[in-house]
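We modelled the chain as a single entity of 129 amino acids. Its sequence is:
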Amino acid sequence: MTTYLFEQDLITQKYRILVAMRHDSLVRKIARELDIPVQELRRYLIEHLDMIQLENLPARAEMADDHADLGDAIARALGREKYTIYLRILSGAAMDAIVNEVNTRVHAGTPVDDAVAYGRTQVREALKL
């Protein structure tokens, strides 16, 4: 009989990572950006990211803030590279579809702020929160 040297249920450990000081402030910042409850975002992150990805969230977020979507204001406002490449909380295909829809709305005459607000709503729906 084989026994595991580690816990199979890592929810408690993942939660402990997310409530650490740097992680907690990052999760709260993302929750504010997307206008979602902190606990729902934590639940999503626990369910969709592994331990290594959770541990590296603050460093990846710092890199995203410095380097993500520098040439595209709409993509940066939506967090295209931040949420797909750097933090890996949303698929690239889903985010590309959202960015394309927002760009289409802007080109059709919708104010940028309204189009970005619509895009953030679509990001929330893509996360299924």
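As a brief sanity check on the tokenised model: The two ends are 40 Å apart (CA to CA). The chain has nine helices and no strands.
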